[in-house]
Structure formats: structure tokens, C-alpha cells
Write a structure and sequence with these properties.
Blueprint (H helix, E strand, L loop, with lengths): L1 H17 L1 H31 L6 H9 L2 H4 L2 E6 L11 E4 L6 H8 L4 E6 L6 H9 L3 E3 L4 H18 L2 E4 L17 H9 L3 E6 L6 E2 L4 E2 L2 E7 L13 H20 L12
Length: 270
């Protein structure tokens, strides 16, 4: 039996080197398992540190997760750090390609910042518990009225507790080489709170991560933090214009840092 496990351990690096499909599934499984294991470690630390659900627990989560990129052979090149040196509440918006976005998010997550995420995430085992402890705002994407109500409450919390929220306005993961049209929630949130929007763009993962082709190689992700977009004085009538402005700016930067040709994913009429 010991010989079997020894042989298996010897085979793993060989398969990682020779089979892209094996490397893809191995890295994906390792990523999920390692993140769940880190969550097991984070849960008691968060409870001891803050006593329960508290946005300050995101510091704990950030510190525990930031090393994971090295295991996956990833690194980040970040520019525009100065744009995050903004006092008070603000809304961060970024494009969304895969669960690997979490690594980039933790690479630059500001203090007193948490995410808006789909409600299903709270049921993701130990990771879901840690997300809850980190103050993540959960929305039910299938019930528009519920989502609007949650966003309205989140705007009040932003102002009362002086926090920041990170939103993925595409609403779902997208690896089509372009940005999907933005949903309006993030922009309603920013306008209700009269808080600025800070766009952040992740370059395309297509040079190292292709889900359909089962490829997951080492690679570099460019993260570009853009200047803030003010919302002071705006009303709900300005939501569509604000959404379109943010989309156009981010799409242009995405194409620039990804070296991609334009491939439209649909009209801007959201």
C-alpha cells in the first residue's frame, strides 16, 4: 500500500507536466479544497477576533488567502493604487471571469471593504460561513424586488458604518473575451449612497485559463485600478447613463490590457 501511494505521488508531477487536462482538474480541485481548508482556519479566528459577523473579519480572510496565487502559478501586476486612497465609502466595480477573481480581489482589497455576492454562496460549506462572517452582502438574483431592497439597505449601511462594497456588475462569470452588459444594482447602490464608483479591470485569463479547453497554466493577471467616478448630485434618472459610462471605460481598458480584439456580447441597452 505504501508503494502505491509513493507511485501516485511520483506520477502527479509527471501528469501535471504532460497532461493539460489533468493539470486543469488537479489545480481546480486543489484550489477549492485549499480555500475550504483555509476557511476552517479562518472561522475560529474571525469569531475570536470580532465575536461574529463583522466587516473587519475581511482583514483575516485577506491575510490567509493572499498566498494561494503562488500554488497556482499566478502573479498580479497592479497599477493605479493611488485611486484606492479615497476616504469614506465607495463602490468598487470589476469584471468577473471566474472564481479566480477572488485572488485578485484579496490582492488589493481595501480596509473596511466587503463584497456583494449571490445568495447561493452562503451555502458553500466552510467558505459560505466565512463569507457570512466577513460581512458579505448576499442578494437573491432571481427576485428583483428583494435585490433592490438589499441594495437599499446596503447603501444605508455604507453611510452609517463607513464601509466600501465590491460589486461584479456583469452579474455572472464571463470568459467570452469581452464584458457582458452591466446590471444596474451597483449604480443604484452608489447613487443612493452618493458614494463614488472606483472601476477595477482584470485582464483576460485566456492566456492561461480556458475552462472549455481544460487548460490551467501559470500566468500573469494585470489589474488596473481606474480613477473614481463621482455620483454626488445624481438621481435614479442617471443610473443608465452612469452604467453606460462605466461600461465603456472598463471595456476599453479591458481590451487594452488584454490585447483582445473587440467581440461584442450584446447591446448596451441593459
Amino acid at each position: 500500500m505504501d508503494a502505491f501511494w509513493m507511485l501516485l505521488l511520483l506520477l502527479i508531477p509527471v501528469l501535471l507536466w504532460t497532461s493539460s487536462t489533468f493539470a486543469f482538474y488537479f489545480k481546480k480541485c486543489f484550489y477549492v479544497a485549499w480555500m475550504m481548508g483555509l476557511a476552517v482556519l479562518a472561522i475560529p479566528i474571525c469569531i475570536l477576533k470580532s465575536g461574529g459577523r463583522d466587516i473587519e473579519n475581511m482583514r483575516v480572510i485577506r491575510s490567509l488567502v493572499r498566498h494561494v496565487k503562488y500554488f497556482l502559478g499566478l502573479r498580479f501586476e497592479v497599477s493605479g493604487w493611488e485611486h484606492l486612497q479615497t476616504e469614506g465609502p465607495y463602490v468598487i466595480i470589476s469584471n468577473h471571469q471566474s472564481s479566480l477573481d477572488v485572488l485578485g480581489l484579496m490582492e488589493i482589497l481595501p480596509d473596511r471593504c466587503t463584497m456583494v455576492a449571490k445568495k447561493e454562496l452562503v451555502y458553500a460549506g466552510t467558505v459560505g460561513i466565512v463569507c457570512w462572517l466577513g460581512g458579505i452582502v448576499f442578494i437573491n438574483r432571481k427576485k428583483t424586488n428583494d435585490a433592490k431592497s438589499v441594495m437599499g439597505d446596503a447603501a444605508k449601511t455604507m453611510l452609517k458604518d463607513q464601509i466600501r462594497l465590491w460589486v461584479f456588475p456583469e452579474g455572472t462569470r464571463n470568459q467570452k473575451g469581452d464584458l457582458l452588459p452591466f446590471k444596474k444594482g451597483a449604480f443604484h447602490l452608489a447613487i443612493q449612497a452618493q458614494a463614488p464608483i472606483i472601476p477595477i479591470v482584470f485582464s483576460s485569463y485566456s492566456n492561461f485559463y480556458l475552462r472549455k479547453e481544460k487548460q490551467f497554466k501559470s500566468g500573469t493577471i494585470t489589474l488596473k485600478i481606474l480613477p473614481k467616478i463621482e455620483t454626488k448630485g445624481m438621481t435614479t434618472d442617471d443610473v443608465s447613463a452612469l452604467s453606460d459610462k462605466s461600461y465603456n471605460i472598463m471595456r476599453s481598458v479591458f481590451m487594452e490590457i488584454s490585447g483582445s480584439a473587440s467581440q461584442s456580447n450584446g447591446p448596451l441597452g441593459h
